[in-house]
Amino acid sequence: MWLDKWVAACLVPLAVWILLSGLDDLFISIAFILSGRKRFPWPAASELDQAPERRIAILVPLWHEDGVIERMLERNLAAIRYRNYDIFVGVYPNDEPTVGAVYQVARRHPRVHLAMCSRNGPTSKGDCLNNAYRRMNDYEAAHGFRFEIVMVHDAEDLVHPESLRLVSRFSREYEMVQIPVLPLPTGLGEFTHGSYCDEFAESQSKDIPVRQRLHGFLPSCGVGTGFDRDALDRLGRQRGGMVFNPESLTEDYETGYCLHAMGCRQVFLPIRMEAAGPVATREYFPSSFRAAVRQRSRWVAGIALQGWERHGWRVPWRQAYWLWRDRKGLAGNLLSPAANLLFLYGCASYAVAACSGHPWGLGSLIPPRLAIVYSATFSISTIQMAMRIRWSARVYGWRFAAGVPLRTPWANLVNCTATAAAMAQFVGARFTRRTLVWRKTEHVYPASTVPGYSTATFSEQA
After folding, report:
1. pLDDT tens-digit profile of 97-146?
2. Cα–Cα dist 147/155, whole Å
3. CA 148/CA 270 separation, integer angstroms
4. d(C-alpha 110, C-alpha 138), whole Å
5. d(CA 97, CA 143)
6. With b meaning 16 or more CB within 10 Å and e meaning fewer, what string describes 239-267?
7. Quick one: residue 224, left, alpha or beta (phi over 0 = left, psi -120 to 50 = alpha)?
8. How many CA atoms lie within 13 A of 307 on its CB side?
9. SS3 annotation, the chain
10. What average pLDDT score do residues 153-165 get?
11. How far apart are CA 422 and CA 209, in angstroms?
12. I need a surface site. Which of 82, 166, 235, 243 has the fewest CB within 10 A?
């Protein structure tokens, strides 16, 4: 059959790529198992209670967040178990509803400060953060003190009550401290948001800890990141005063990379499960296909495409490996849906042949040597699926994790579409000499209490 011949021809390059990428992922899993004996030096509660509080500035960049920002600020101000901090909220002059919402909170809470951007928005998240950083500098000059740590959060974040105390504690040894980031739990039918749950549970439980253990640079997760003030100032001097790269769509990734290149020490705090839930920054991610594509296309364009354009591969070989892992999605994301379709076709054609008593046409077209490669890729994929189920279950429970095999093909489709969109945006911007702009995601905030965070009640964005 001609279709079988076409499928068999496509399987060869696809299997080679899946084997290469699968072995890479398998290496990370093996490295996690072999390096997991050393326990992380998590501080005791008494140590956190007695530790001096370093002065922290939290920067929150906003564009059209009037629907959630008041609840976000009020909730976190009530929940955070820390006293020595201020919040600088970046807003744009042409976003009057958000300006008004922040102004109302600032009137009630002296530690909240409105940071007006110098230009109309949207520009970029990095540019908005730079404006908030300048407002922080002005505040210091007016009050005669200096912030020792700068943290970054978004408008949808539920900051863990212990987050600032942990950042203060570990910032004495590290110039960048990353609190884990995990999506909030969602229903079994929420395939898009559920795929975020699966992917973040795996990356924050396994991939990033292994990256740290193997001395790879740690990209900031964008939220829940604490930076040493002196390190950021040194970085800003290298950029002509721009602490956060205003041209990058993923200034968090860029900042983590540049700090490591400067010799700064970085640490990712592993997920710690407590009775009330994980110690992590929690938030809702997009629940619709279109919104997820919009967000992930920004990640791909910033991390893989802009990162490649800006830094190339001119790094020590150990770091080049992590660049490869960050960029291999440019090919892998595009190929994954095709692999899923061909796998389903192979299973369906085998079932039809078995029921009809005819030979399996596709099987007769696969040479014995290639059959070994296909078996290897299937085995590796099965192992990786089991690993993702295991990490998803750790955070969200086994009932939710049972849906990983169903959500993974959907996630592959989202990633494929986002990667294609990112490539189109990137190439189009280069041809027209335009700057890629901040394509932000619409956010929602929890409608009720979240265990381990606060006893206050909040309503969801309409």
Report:
1. 999 999 999 999 999 999 999 999 899 999 999 999 999 999 999 999 99
2. 22
3. 23
4. 16
5. 29
6. eeebbbbbebbbbbbbbbbbbbeeebebb
7. left
8. 29
9. CHHHHHHHHHHHHHHHHHHHHHHHHHHHHHHHHHHCCCCCCCCCHHHHHHCCCCCEEEEEECCCCCCCHHHHHHHHHHHCCCCCEEEEEEECCCCHHHHHHHHHHHHHCCCEEEEECCCCCCCCHHHHHHHHHHHHHHHHHHHCCCCCEEEECCCCCECCCCHHHHHHHHCCCCCEEECCEEECCCCCCCHHHHHHHHHHHHHHHHHHHHHHHCCCCCCCCCCCEEEEHHHHHHHHHHCCCCCCCCCCCCHHHHHHHHHHHCCCCEEECCCCEECCEECCEEECCCCCHHHHHHHHHHHHHHHHHHHHHHHCCCCCHHHHHHHHHHHCHHHHHHHHHHHHHHHHHHHHHHHHHHHHCCCCHHHHCCCHHHHHHHHHHHHHHHHHHHHHHHHHHHHHCHHHHCCHHHHHHHHHHHHHHHHHHHHHHHHHHHHHCCCCCCCCCCCCCCCCCCCCCCCCCCCCCC
10. 96
11. 28
12. 82
Burial (0-12, 13-18, 19+ Cβ within 10 Å), 34: exposed
Report how far apart, in Å, the C-alpha atoms of 263 and of each of 96, 177, 231, 234, 255 are: 41, 14, 10, 11, 13
Q: Is the sign of the CA dihedral 381, 385, 388, 390 positive or negative? A: negative
Instruction: Read off the tokens for 196.
Output: 């975020």
**Is pLDDT at 349 greater than 80 in this prediction?**
yes
The one-letter amino acid at 152: V
For helices 368-396 and 2-35, the axis angle rounded to 10 degrees is: 50
The answer to whether residue 460 scores a pLDDT higher than 80 is no
Two tokens, residue 136: 């922080």
Contact call for residues 345 and 8 (beta carbons, < 8 A)? no
Closest CA to 284 of 71, 57, 63: 71
Residue 458, pLDDT > 50, answer no
The two three-digit tokens of residue 199, written as one number: 């992917």
pTM of the predicted structure, to 2 decimals: 0.91
Rg value, the chain, Cα: 23
Residue 179: exposure state from Cβ atoms within 10 A (0-12, 13-18, ≥19): buried
Residues facing residue 267 across a β-bridge: 177
Q: Which residues contact 45 (CB under 8 A, 6 or more apart)?
A: none
